[in-house]
Amino acid sequence: MLKTLMVAVAGLSLSAAVSAQELVEGQHYEALEEPVETQVDDGQIEVLDVFWYGCPHCYRLQSHVNEWEETLDDDVTMAKMPATMGGDWNTHANAYYAAEELGIAEELHADFFDAIHQDERSMTDSDDIAAFFADYGVSEDEAKEALKAFNVRSNVNKANSRMRDMRLMGVPALVVDGRYVVTPSSAGSLENMPKIADALVEKVREERDE
Distance between CA atoms of 99 and 91, rounded to whole angstroms? Predict the structure, then answer.
């Protein structure tokens, strides 16, 4: 059974733009009691896309996030973090960080989603993953080495720790500035998630200016 958050069909109806003043904590987003350290340069606002390759909601969210990312100002950094909840989740997280280690994560990311959700490939076998990686300018041997690399395992463990710190029990989620968590349930739909996150980015700007 997929451990994903169900999209709320009776959620908030939002306009194309949402102001920070319209947001209600506990209704449109959750605020973490303890902020999680971000991994961006000083002055930047991190928006963390937490996903699982096997999650259909995460797959559908990507187009909305990609469209939104093109509109972001220079003070916002989009980042990705694979969710780690055991089993295939960790296998896919390992694949993401291996691709990152090989320098092919950005190029491969959307295609890996497509392989699972369009081509119906599970992508949970290391040989299959290595063969897939080989289409991106690395050898299968290099891919297999990366899948077993210490740095990759370490990154999976760090992601697992951040998942706990963010108290995430499912995906997709957008985490703004290590403090504000947006889910399909809180946003009302996948399409609304970037709109809520955008308003939260403005909220962070306002807070930093105070």
Answer: 12
d(C-alpha 99, C-alpha 88), whole Å: 16
> What are the distances in angstroms from CA 199 to CA 21, 53, 80, 95, 210?
8, 26, 19, 32, 17
User: CA-CA distance, 72 to 13, in Å (whole number)?
Assistant: 22
**What's the order of all strands across the beta sheet hosting 76-82?**
30-31, 180-182, 173-176, 45-51, 76-82
CB 97 within 8 A of CB 82: yes
Could you report the per-residue pLDDT of 33-50, keeping only the tens digit for each?
999 999 999 999 999 999
Nearest C-alpha neighbor of 183 from the set 201, 196, 165, 199: 196
pLDDT tens, residue by residue, 118-155: 999 999 999 999 999 999 999 999 999 999 999 999 99
Global pTM?
0.90
Give dist(CA 196, CA 22) in Å, integer.
10
Answer yes or no: are the C-beta atoms of 142 and 102 closer than 8 Å.
yes
Cβ proximity of 187 and 6 under 8 Å: no
